[in-house]
Amino acid sequence: MIGGEKEKFRNLVHSAAEAIFGQTRVDPSKKILLLDHVLDELSMSKTPVKRRPNSHLSLISTAVCWYQMGLDPYGHLTCQTPPFRLWLGIVENLFCNEELLEESIENALNDKYTQAEDLIFFVSVLGWEQCIQLNSFDGYRERFDDTKAFFHHRLDEAKNFSSKIITYLANQRLEKHS
Question: What DSSP letter does each residue of 65-121 carry, written as one string?
Fold first, then answer.
């Protein structure tokens, strides 16, 4: 992405989109999880916020990983866990919205502010990966505790929000299978 291989990056993202979400992109009625109105309803923001374009690097990297590993996230829905359904729904929402996907690709490739933010995300991921590779539970615990302390003031709000999302997804699952 930041190595200047723009066409290679674009092709990789589009290949992942087609392999994983091909049917859903062609026929939106096959979309199984989250629609825009659902994401708006589940938003933590209390007031409408002007959306800033972004690369959605974590979402793109998730889909590319599934693609490169040959995984079908829909086939793994046998677990039906609300967090997995939520994550798949969010990734699906990006990859099935051609305009949003193209905007994300363009921002990933060309927007310096977005690239700087993505680099911070990437470095953070590397830090977590190092803790795991080095089998450093102390390092992992320290990172976890620091992150927890950073978000401490929003934990109650997040718990309530998480409960709302899980309830929504569980009800959606029951409705589909009724």
Answer: HHHHHT--TTTTTTS--HHHHHHHHHHHHHHT-HHHHHHHHHHHHH-HHHHHHHHHH
